[in-house]
C-alpha cells in the first residue's frame, strides 16, 4: 500500500515538475502523505517520504558484524537542484563500507521513468540491540536536509554464544584474610533456549568462602531489548589465605541454544508425481559458556605495630566479655560470656587468649558460630560461654581479656579489652559443720539405787530342756560373701565416677559421643525437606550434616576448610583414599545442587540421601 502511495505521489510531482520546484512542495507533500496513510508515520527501515524518493532496506534485523545495505532511489528529473550526492553519517558502532550509484527504471502511473539508485553498504556493530544506525542527509538548494533516520534491530549471530557469564569482584586488591564479594553476571541473547546448568563452580583452594544461594536466580528481560535477559547476583564472599596473585578458576556452564538456519532439501512422491522442495530449519544445539579467570592481588599484613598475640582476624570487629555476677557462694556457677563479631573470614573466628582460671573448676565451654549477610557483607558472630565453679571462698581478681584484629579500612591494628573483674565467693548457708564425735559419760549408781534395783530382780526359773545351739553367723560363707561384695562394687563405682569426670572434661570424647545423635537430626531434616519437595533445605541439611559429622568424630572444625585442608585432615585421621574422594565429590555435588540454577528431581534426591547414609557409615573409622 505504501508503494502505491509513493507512485501516486511521484505521478503528482511529475505533472508539476516543469512549473514548480518540487523541493518547495516538501511540506505539502508530507502533509498529503500523512493524510493518505491515516495520520500514521512509517516505521524505521520502511519507506520514508520527504519528497519524490524511496528508501529500501534489504534486511532487518541483521546479525552482529554482518554486512547489509539499503537503497535510496530518486527520480532523475527531480534532482536538478541537488549540488552533491547524499551522505550517510553512521552512529552506535555501525561502519559505512561503501556508496555506489546506478541508473534504474521505476514504474509510475504514466509508465516508466529513470531514477538514480544510491546503495549504502554497512556493517552491523558487535553489540546486539535496537540501535540508530545513522542519518541520511542531502544538500538541496544550498540547504542540507535530514532525509532519513535508519534504525536497525541487531541480533547476535547464531554462531556466537547465546550466554555470556562473568565474575566481578568488589575489590581487586585486598589484604590477606580480608573479605571481598564476587558477583556472577549472566546475560542471555535471543537465540538462548534454556536449560542453563553449572558444570563447574569451584573457587579453588586459595580462599575461605561463603556461597550465596543461587537456586532461585531469575533472568530479567532488558528494557531496550525484551528478547534478551540478564541477572547479576552475589555468588560468594571469600577471604584469601595467602599473599601474592591468586585466582578463581573459570566457572563452566552448559545450555541449549537455537542453531543456525539450514536449508534442507526434501522430496515428496504423491500420486506418482515427484516434487522437490526446500525448507529452512533450526535445530537446538548444546553449547558451553565459561567465565574468565578472576585474578586478585593479596597484600601481606604490615609488620609495624603488629601485636605479639595477633589473632589473625582481618576486618571490622566487635568484642564483648562479661560475667553474669560478681558475687556467689560455694557450689554456684559463674558464667563468662564472650561475643565476637566481624566481617573477616566467613564462618571463622579465633578464640581470645583466656586468663588463668586455676582457682575455679571449669567444664567444656559452649561455642556457637553464626553467619548472616548484612549490608553486602557476611557477618560472622561467635558466642562463647564458660562455666566456672569456685574451689574455695575468698575474693578473686580475674585479669582483663583482650582481642585484636587488623582493620583494612583504617590500615592499622585495633585492640579491644574487657575487665578486669573482682569476684567474691562466700560460704553457703547449707554447708555442714565439722563432725565432732561425742564421748559417753559414766555416772556410778548410788547405794540406794542399787538396793532398789536389787528388789526389782525377779527369780530365774531353771530350764530343764535346752535346744541345740546353732553355729555362729560369722562361720557362714554367705556372711563373708555379703560382707565383701560392697568393696568391689565401691571400687567399680569410684572408677566409673573418675572416668565420667574425665570424659566430661574431654571435649573430643563429648563431641564424638554426640556425633550420631547430631547426624540423625540432619538426616531427619533432609527427609522432611524431601517430603516437602524443598531442594534447597534438602541439600543444605545433607551438606551441613556431613561437615558436622566429620567435625564431631574428629574434634576438628571442618567448616570453612579448603578442599586441600579437608583432604589433608582426612588423611591424617586414617580415612581411606576412596572415602576421601567420596567426601570431596559429595561436597562438590551439594554445592552445585544448592547454588547452581538447577533443580534435581525427587528420585535423584532419594538416591542422594541413600549415598549420604552409606558414606557416613563408612566414616565411623575416624580416630
Automatic annotation (TrEMBL):
Q: Which residues cross the membrane?
A: 478-497
Q: Kindly name one Pfam family recorded for this protein.
A: BatD
Keyword Transferase present in the record's keywords: the answer is no
Signal peptide bounds: 1-19
Q: Which UniProt keywords apply?
A: Membrane, Signal, Transmembrane, Transmembrane helix
Keyword hit for Transmembrane = yes
Q: What is the protein named?
A: Oxygen tolerance protein BatD
Species name: Hallerella succinigenes
Amino acid at each position: 500500500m505504501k508503494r502505491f502511495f509513493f507512485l501516486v505521489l511521484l505521478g503528482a510531482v511529475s505533472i508539476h515538475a516543469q512549473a514548480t520546484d518540487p523541493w518547495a512542495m516538501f511540506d505539502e507533500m508530507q502533509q498529503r502523505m500523512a493524510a493518505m496513510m491515516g495520520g500514521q508515520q512509517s516505521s524505521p527501515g520502511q519507506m520514508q517520504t520527504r519528497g519524490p524518493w524511496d528508501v529500501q532496506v534489504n534486511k532487518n534485523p541483521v546479525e552482529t558484524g554482518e554486512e547489509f545495505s539499503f537503497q535510496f532511489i530518486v527520480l532523475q528529473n527531480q534532482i536538478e537542484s541537488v549540488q552533491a550526492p547524499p551522505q550517510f553519517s553512521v552512529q552506535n558502532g555501525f561502519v559505512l563500507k561503501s556508496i555506489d550509484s546506478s541508473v534504474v527504471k521505476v514504474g509510475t502511473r504514466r509508465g516508466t521513468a529513470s531514477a538514480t539508485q544510491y546503495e549504502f553498504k554497512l556493517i552491523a556493530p558487535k553489540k546486539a540491540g535496537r540501535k540508530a544506525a545513522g542519518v541520511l542527509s542531502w544538500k538541496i538548494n544550498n540547504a542540507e536536509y535530514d532525509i532519513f533516520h535508519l534504525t536497525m534491530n541487531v541480533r547476535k549471530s547464531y554462531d556466537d554464544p547465546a550466554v555470556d557469564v562473568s565474575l566481578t569482584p568488589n575489590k581487586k586488591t585486598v589484604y590477606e584474610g580480608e573479605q571481598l564479594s564476587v558477583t556472577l553476571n549472566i546475560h542471555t541473547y535471543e537465540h538462548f533456549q534454556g536449560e542453563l546448568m553449572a558444570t563447574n563452580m569451584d573457587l579453588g583452594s586459595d580462599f575461605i568462602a561463603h556461597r550465596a544461594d543461587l537456586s532461585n536466580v531469575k533472568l530479567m528481560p532488558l528494557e531496550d531489548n525484551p528478547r534478551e535477559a540478564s541477572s547479576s547476583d552475589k555468588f560468594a564472599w571469600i577471604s584469601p589465605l595467602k599473599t601474592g596473585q591468586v585466582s578463581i578458576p573459570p566457572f563452566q556452564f552448559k545450555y541449549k541454544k537455537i542453531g543456525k538456519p539450514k536449508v534442507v532439501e526434501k522430496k515428496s512422491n504423491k500420486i506418482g508425481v515427484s516434487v522437490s522442495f526446500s525448507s529452512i530449519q533450526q535445530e537446538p544445539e548444546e553449547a558451553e559458556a565459561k567465565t574468565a579467570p578472576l585474578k586478585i592481588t593479596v597484600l601481606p599484613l604490615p609488620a609495624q605495630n603488629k601485636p605479639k598475640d595477633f589473632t589473625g582476624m582481618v576486618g571490622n570487629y566487635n568484642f564483648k566479655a562479661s560475667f553474669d555476677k560478681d558475687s556467689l557462694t560455694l557450689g554456684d556457677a559463674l558464667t563468662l560470656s564472650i561475643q565476637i563479631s566481624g566481617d573477616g573470614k566467613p564462618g571463622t573466628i579465633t578464640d581470645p587468649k583466656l586468663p588463668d582460671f586455676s582457682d575455679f573448676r571449669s567444664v567444656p565451654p559452649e561455642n556457637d558460630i553464626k553467619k548472616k549477610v548484612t549490608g553486602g557483607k557476611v557477618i560472622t558472630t561467635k558466642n562463647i560461654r564458660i562455666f566456672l565453679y569456685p574451689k574455695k571462698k575468698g575474693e578473686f581478681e580475674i585479669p582483663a581479656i583482650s582481642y585484636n584484629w587488623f582493620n583494612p579500612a583504617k590500615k592499622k591494628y585495633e585492640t579491644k579489652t574487657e575487665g578486669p573483674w573482682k569476684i567474691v565467693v562466700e560460704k553457703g548457708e547449707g554447708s555442714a559443720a565439722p563432725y565432732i564425735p561425742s564421748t559417753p559419760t559414766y555416772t556410778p549408781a548410788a547405794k540406794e539405787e542399787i538396793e532398789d534395783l536389787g528388789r526389782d530382780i525377779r527369780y530365774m526359773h531353771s530350764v530343764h530342756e535346752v535346744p541345740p545351739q546353732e553355729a555362729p553367723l560369722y562361720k557362714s560363707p554367705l556372711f563373708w560373701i555379703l560382707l565383701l561384695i560392697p568393696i568391689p562394687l565401691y571400687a567399680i563405682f569410684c572408677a566409673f565416677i573418675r572416668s565420667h569426670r574425665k570424659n566430661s572434661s574431654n571435649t573430643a570424647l563429648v563431641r564424638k559421643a554426640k556425633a550420631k545423635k547430631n547426624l540423625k537430626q540432619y538426616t531427619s531434616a533432609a527427609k522432611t525437606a524431601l517430603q516437602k519437595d524443598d531442594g534447597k533445605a534438602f541439600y543444605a541439611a545433607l551438606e551441613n550434616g556431613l561437615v558436622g559429622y566429620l567435625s564431631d568424630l574428629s574434634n576438628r572444625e571442618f567448616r570453612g576448610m579448603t578442599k586441600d585442608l579437608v583432604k589433608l585432615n582426612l588423611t591424617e585421621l586414617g580415612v581411606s583414599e576412596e572415602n576421601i574422594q567420596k567426601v570431596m565429590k559429595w561436597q562438590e555435588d551439594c554445592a552445585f545442587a544448592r547454588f547452581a540454577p538447577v533443580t534435581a528431581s525427587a528420585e535423584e534426591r532419594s538416591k542422594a540421601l541413600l549415598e549420604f547414609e552409606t558414606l557416613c557409615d563408612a566414616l565411623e573409622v575416624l580416630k
